[in-house]
Structures are given as C-alpha cells and as structure tokens.
Design brief:
Blueprint: E1 11-16, E2 28-37, E3 43-49, E4 58-61, E5 64-67, E6 73-79, E7 83-92, E8 103-109
Antiparallel strand pairs: 1-2, 2-7, 3-6, 3-8, 4-5, 4-7
C-alpha cells in the first residue's frame, strides 16, 4: 500500500493595528503585517503603490529597510522557506511626502 498526501500551497497576509502613528523621527507606522505561507520555496512580501509616487520614501518591515523608487512595486522581503510571523511596517516619507492613497501589501509564494 502506498499513501501519498499533497498539501496545497497557501499564503496570506493580514493587516493588524491602526496605521498613521508618527514617531519623533518622522516615520509613520502602517501597523503590523501578519504573514503565513507554507510554500517550501518561500515567499515574497510585495508592496504595490501608485506609479510615480513615494519616490525616495523608506519602508521598514521588521528589520528590513527598502527605499522606494517610484516604480509602483517593491519587494519588501524574501523568505527562503515556509514561515508564520508578525512584523511592524512603517514608512519614512521622501521629499514629496506621502503623495498617494494607493498602498497594498501582498504575499506571493516562490515555486521551489
């Protein structure tokens, strides 16, 4: 008798907390992201925003810092295997401030 079990890949990201709290450094809290992904190859946490906006803004996810280039998409984090974690997210506005109201964080499994 052979038994085979296939577990489907499932990834999700949820927002927690209240965004908009500014610190003394000018960094604005966007709350927390709760990440879950069981993909054996890991996953990417991706931010989408309005193209042409947020140029030079700095996003921090946990201990990772990413400078936005205005392209409308940024990979905030790459994880090398399955993981479940909650991390704070904040933004330090660039020279143009927060010049968009379109901001989304999504999670994408990496096929491994």
């Amino acid at each position: 008798m052979n038994l085979r079990l296939v577990v489907p890949v499932h990834c999700s990201v949820q927002y927690e907390g209240l965004p908009g709290l500014e610190t003394s450094s000018g960094r604005i809290s966007l709350g927390n992201v709760r990440e879950y992904c069981n993909a054996s190859g890991g996953y990417e946490l991706v931010m989408a925003y309005a193209p042409g906006s947020l140029r030079g803004a700095t996003v921090q996810v946990g201990g990772e810092v990413i400078v936005l280039d205005g392209s409308g998409r940024a990979v905030l984090s790459r994880e090398s295997g399955p993981k479940m974690q909650t991390r704070p997210v904040s933004i330090l506005p660039g020279a143009n401030g927060i010049d968009t109201n379109q901001l989304a964080i999504d999670i994408h499994p990496i096929q491994g």
